[in-house]
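Example 4.3 (complexes with small molecules)
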Amino acid sequence: MLSPPVVELSRRLASMLPPSLSKAMFLSTGGEANEAALKLAKLYTGKFEVVGFTGAWHGMTSGAQSVNYFAGRKGYGPMMPGSLAIPAPNAYRCPVRHCRDACDGTCLDVGFDAVDAQSTGSLAALIAEPVESAGGVIVPPEGYWQQVKQHCRARGMLLIFDEAQTAFRLGRNFAFQHFGVEPDILTLSKTLGGGIPLSAVVTSTEIEAECNAHGFLHATSHVSDPLPARVGLAVLDVIEEEELMARAIEMGERLAAGLRHLQERHEIIGDVRGLGLLWGVELVTDRERREPDAVIGRAITERCMELGLSMNIVAIGTMAAIWRIAPPLTVSAEEINRGIAILDQAIVDVLAASTSRAAE
Ligand SMILES: Cc1ncc(COP(=O)(O)O)c(C=O)c1O
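Answer. The structure with pyridoxal-5'-phosphate bound is encoded below.
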C-alpha cells in the first residue's frame, strides 16, 4: 500500500525529471538505493557485471560496497563477482599518465579496453557519481558522460548515476543536467531527506515494467514510509521557495573565488576545482611535481579546527591530499568569507611553524 505522501513525492520528482525518469521507489539510505539500482540493472539486462570508477563511493551494503573503489574494500574477502573498475577522469593526476590539466577521454577508452578484456560477457551496468566526491571532487570534461553513455549502449549496459552528493548541490537540481546526459537509473539520498534517512531510486517506465514482470523485489521495513516522504516534499518545497539552486551558484562562485585567491597566495594549493557548492582543493609540495602534501594538509586541517572551521580532507596519503568542501545550501556570504579567512590564517600559521622548525 502506498500512502499519499509517497505518491506525491514520486509525482513531484517525476515533474522535475525528464520523462525517461518517472518511476520512483523510496528507501532509507544511499547505499540501499544503489543496491536497488544494481538489482534493477541486473534483472533488466539478465547480466551481472558492474563497472565503477576508481575513487568512487556508493555505500556500505555488499552490492554498493563492491563498486566502492575509494576505501573499505580490504579485509572482507571477495566482493561481488563481476565488479570491475575504470579510471576516474582526473585531469590534475591523469590516471593513464597521458594528459595534464585537460582530460581528453583517453583514460575512458583505456578503461573500457580493460573492462572488455576482463568481462565474462555479462556486463549489466556502469555506476558513477556525475562528479566524484569522496574520490577528490573530479569534474569530468565536457562530452565525457556522452562518451560513457555510448560505451554503455555499445555493450548493452545501463548507466546508473548515483547523485547522493551531487543532487540539489551543484546549482541544478540534478548534476546530470549540467552534463546533458540522462542516466537509465538515478539514485538520490542525503539532501533529499534533509537529515532524515530518505533515498530514492528512479528509472523509466520501461525498465520498471520489465523488472516488475520479472518479479523485482527490494522490500525493507522502511520502503515507502510516509514520514520521510513528507520530509522529502518539505525539502523540495524549501529548495524551490528559497531558490536554493540559484543560491548554490551564487555562493559557489563566492567560495570558488575565495579558494582561487588562496591558491594565488599559497604555493601549497595545487588545484581548485568543483561546481556549485562542491569544491576540491589539492595540496602539493610543489606545483610542478604535484607531490601530495598530506602532512601539512593534516596540520592545516587541525589548525582550522582550532580556529573554528571544520575541514574534510579526503583521498589522503600517497595518492593525494584534497580538501572536499561542501557547505550547507543555506550557507551565507559572511560564513563563506569567514571560512576562507580562517583557512588562510591556518595555512599561514602552519607554514610559518614548519619554516621556523626547519630553521632550528
Ligand atoms: C556518492 C555516494 N553514494 C552513496 C553513499 C552512501 O550513502 P549512505 O551512507 O546513506 O548509505 C554516499 C555516502 O557518503 C555517497 O557519498
